[in-house]
Amino acid sequence: MDRLSSLLELFRPKTREVELLSGLKNRLDISADSAIGLVHQGNAILKDDKNTHINIGKGDILWITPGNQFELISEQANFQFLCCHLEFGPVRLNPLFDMIPAALH
Q1: N or C, which terminus of the chain has less Cβ within 10 Å?
Q2: Whole-structure pTM over 0.85, yes or no?
Q3: pLDDT digit of tens for each residue in the chain (105 aa)?
């Protein structure tokens, strides 16, 4: 078993909420949990508070780690982002979040 599988076995994610963000501008606040999202339709820019931009488009998957805030900005009214908020247990005890960036594309 690889290290990631071991961590996911120990800190099993649980779905807390699933939401569909759509339209032109959305705030994505991942404060106490993590989120995995899929761009279902359209293109957008994911922007963090440090003004870092990630271009995303249909079919892209993002993993956003706990404690991060992002803004989804799209010029397309038909933009859709399916977002699944996940709980991994006590975040401060999970070494996985010490090793990965705020957003994985």
Answers
A1: N
A2: no
A3: 666 676 566 667 788 889 888 887 666 655 557 888 999 999 998 888 788 888 999 999 998 877 777 888 888 888 999 999 887 765 555 566 666 677 778
